[in-house]
Amino acid sequence: MSRNLGSPGPPAPPPAVRTATPGWRDPRLWIGIAIVAASVVGGARLLASADDTVTVWAVAADMGAGDQVTEEDLVAHRVRFADDAQLNRYFAGDDPLPGDLELLRGVGEGELLPRAAVGSAEDTDTLQVPISVAVERVPESVGAGSVVDVFIVARPTDPQGPAPGGPGEPALRAVTVVAAPAGDDTFGAAGERQLDLAVPEDDAQAFFELLNSFDGPVLTVVRRG
After folding, report:
1. Exposed, middle or buried: residue 87 (CB in 10 Å: 0-12, 13-18, 19+)?
2. Predicted model pTM
């Protein structure tokens, strides 16, 4: 067998390259660790903020001034507040609800119950004033929680005297119906309906004085809203 001494031999194999494990001084290692740490911290904060809510009391149905407030009238809502100062304006669900609470103003269904909207029944000057109204002079939709105006439609005993509360001016303005029994449940005369109204004490006194100044007064109730 002849051999060509002038032809080159087979090429030499390339040198083996070993994979080097990055050392702790390698900046790529620290960049990776920083990215992972940032992801963990960001995810933890996101999960924490997703449940950063507190339970507060809200009104289950429309309620008006003079209504007594109990836990049966409330529902718990979870709300997120920007700071504790805002939370302190309302009743937190984990705090015991004070007893003998009475609304000082109307609060709508689903509205958070503000501390400023309630007071102790002993501290308020609201009276419950009963009136009897012919059924055709009160809207059927009037019920507990309705806000109404009350008009007196009759001539005063003294024709020369002033007639406040006449057809153009309500004798009671924007008062809340505390109770409104159905016609069959009232103890008044047939064809009349009883309404119990929450009226400030001064307004109640003025209303009775005005009512007594009329000869055969007739009341008409107008619902607001």
Report:
1. middle
2. 0.54
